[in-house]
Write a structure and sequence with these properties.
By secondary structure, this protein is an alpha+beta fold. The protein has one helix at residues 3-17, and strands at residues 49-51, 58-61, 70-74, 80-88, 91-98, 104-108.
Amino acid sequence: MRLRTKLAAVALGAVAATGGLVLPATAAVAAPEGAAACYNPGWSNKDNAGGSTNANYVNIRSGPTTECVSHGQAQASHSLTLHCWVSGENGTWSHVRDNSTGVSGWIKDSLLNNNGASSSC
C-alpha cells in the first residue's frame, strides 16, 4: 500500500471513529511524570511479505514512536518480514521481523523500501 493510501485510510478511520464528526485539533499533553510514553499496539502477521530498510542502523523499536526503546538495528542488507502497519509518531510504522538477527518490532515506514507493510494491523 502506498503512503498516500495509508494516510487516507488513517484519516477515514479517524472520521469513522468519531461517528463522522470532525473534531478540532487540540494541543498535545505531556504524559505525567513517571508514565510510560511508549505504547505497543496489537499486531498480526497479515502481510508476511519480504522487505528491507533503505538505510543502515535503523532502530527496531518496541512501539511505533521514537520514545520506545530500540531492541536492535536493521541494516540495508538484512532481510525483513513485514507483518502489518499502524499509524504512529509522524506517520505510519510497520511491525517487522529482522530475519538476519531474529529481532522483531516497529520501524517507521519512511525507513523501509516500498513504504513498509501493505496491510493495516
